Amino acid sequence: MAPSPQTIGEFSVLPISIPPVPSFPRNVVHYLYVRRNTPKIPTANDSRSLFLANVPIDSTELHLRALFASLVGAGRFESASFEDERKEAEAVAAALDAAPAQAVRLLAAHGKKRKREDQEAAERAEEEAAARLPSTWTRPLRKSGSTAVVLLADEKSVHQVLKAIAKVHKSKKYPTWGGEGNVVAERVPQLGSIWLKAHNQLSYPDRDQLQAAVDAFSTMFARREREAAEIAKRLRNEPDEDGFVTVTRGGRSAPATRNEAEEAKKKMIEKAEKKKQEMTDFYRFQMRERKKAEQEELVKRFEEDRQKLDAMRQKRGKFVPEA
Between residues 246 and 154, which one has the greater pLDDT? Predict the structure, then answer.
């Protein structure tokens, strides 16, 4: 068997040993691809985080914690975020923000002006947690080839991990997935038939628990509508950054929609351009000077073209074709 490459592009290749399980009683090697985290939108923790590709499908934070502890020792690993969990969190946030578009726009516009205390933020977090439906899986499985971002203690830890990966290729002693003796398996829910039976039970949650989640979501939805209405009421007579007061059709019941605002802005720009053009040709002498300048420009271009044509004729000379 040919040795695995140490690097592929900007990724360092980390071979890990997958211990046998009853359903597949053979030891296999899985390849994890690791590089420094360089997202499109930089964050403050990029220098001490790593981007992992092709994580095993049964990955958990405990698995990655044990893996990095075997490479650089305990105390270096802080947290891990998986690709599917980030997408799920974004979807949940979008569902919780299912307030009317007007409310979302107003709350986003005035989020910086509203001073929120820590206690109020904690209460809102509890409210959002209560509005989420209960999970139906005791333990998630990752998609094949999915990714994760690992946050380490400092930038030095990142360098040590990459250095340890290079040593793994030299020693051929691959770290064991789940830790030595598979100690992680004792701390995470089991897979297989037990996992599927638990999913079947969780798919039918208690009716009271489900009703409580629906009630919490409805309460939060109504509260955000009230907040948006209060902000809209305050904005009726408050000028914006440009000094304009927002007015809508049918009275000042709420700020104008985005399309109406953009259409009004477009009309204002067109009107200003038209007025500027009219002022340019307001006086007769300005019109005479402009026409005179246009004629001089035409004569200048004509003379340049004539000189180019004369030069081409002289360069060609008297050409007599052969008989």
Answer: 154
Q: With the C-alpha atoms ordered 91, 95, 96, 100, is the resulting torsion angle positive or negative?
A: positive
Neighbours of 278 (CB within 10 A): 9
CA atoms of 282 and 245, how far apart (whole Å): 32
The 10s digit of each residue's pLDDT in 266-281 is 777 887 787 776 666 5
- DSSP characters for 169-193? HHH--PPBTTSTT-GGGGTS---TH
Q: Please give the Cα distance from 52 to 16 (Å, whole number).
A: 13
Q: How far from 139 is each of 55, 62, 67, 91, 248, CA to CA, in Å?
A: 16, 12, 19, 19, 51
For 148, phi then psi, to 5°, come to -155, 160
Find tokens 């109406």 and name the residue. Answer: 260
Tokens of 75: 């105390």
The CA distance from 125 to 128, in Å, is: 5
77 falls in which pLDDT band (50, 70, 90)? very high
More confident residue, 48 or 255: 48
Give me the residue label for tokens 């290079």: 166
The amino acid at residue 49 is S
Residue 99's pLDDT is: 46
